[in-house]
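During the no-cost extension, the postdoctoral fellow (Dr. R.K.) reprocessed legacy sequence entries with the updated structure-token encoder. One reprocessed record is reproduced below for audit purposes.
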Amino acid sequence: MDFANAPKIELHCHLDGSLRPDSVLDLLRKNKLEEGLDESNIDKALKISGDCDSLVTYLEKFDLPLRVMQDKESLERLTYEVFEDAYKENVVYLELRFAPVLHTRKGLTERDAIEAVIGGMERAKKDLDIEGNIIICCMKNMSEEAAIKTIKAGYPYLNKGLVGIDLAGKEDEGFAYKFVEAIGLARDMGYRVTIHAGEAGSGQNVLDAIRILGAERIGHGTNLYQSEEAYRLVKENNVHLEVCPTSNLQTKAVDLLEKHPAIYYYRDGLSISINTDNRTVSNTSLDHELEAIGPLLAIDRPAYMKIYERAVDASFADQDTKDKLIDKVRRII
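Re-encoded structure tokens follow.
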């Protein structure tokens, strides 16, 4: 199948892991922060290499991008560029996620950061034929009080470009218990909920994310198979899995793409989508992800239609947008 010309949906993409290297270098120079970085080595500084041994090592690649993401102008620009890059490979809907708390080092409030990112997205939606929404992340390594602060900061923008909440970062066992009050508050406010779980952690974490936190979608969910109860819950309740194949290889969540558990999940009828996770850190694109795992899933046009429609259904978009996205793929495919 020709994935390049097919309309695509992306539900799991991190802003700070998807920046253009030349833009990062430009902003480093403007802020006099380049410290020996130039055109010859900026790619290596931002992209993961073959010696990555874990999710923790993978996450170290986010330190440099965050240095240039501390003012509204840069955040707006970089968000626009991620949407533009997605548009260039025929992504018609993108849910972009980021953690506002990580952009407050130089005086921005979390609300400032959210405004800037939504602004960049809205400008891209106006200029380009792409739809999108923003998901804000709370960090698992921070306190529940910090998560509640982020959730409250985002509330004025809920359903005005911001639609969801996530828990991201290093995955400890049992992390869900730490955030019961925070995610409960988010649900009460009207946030849609997706949770990173079962990536570096166990299938039990997936079960906890659904049962304790009310997750509608699971980021990664690679180790779902480890918990029979979690697997049954995902299947019976149509909980959507945001699968990120290349990232999972790099973080050692899986050893071989041919053995990725998502292949079994898909064949067993679970709702999955294929995503980049981090376009720059993983040195990937949605076309690349689909071309890599597509043959393993035996994706032909009817199968692609089903994956696309499931992704649209699982998205946090409003119904009008969902209808437009379904119409778009039916007209082309």
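The chain has a mean pLDDT of 96. Residues 39 and 154 are 36 Å apart (CA to CA). The remaining legacy entries will be reprocessed before the final report is submitted.
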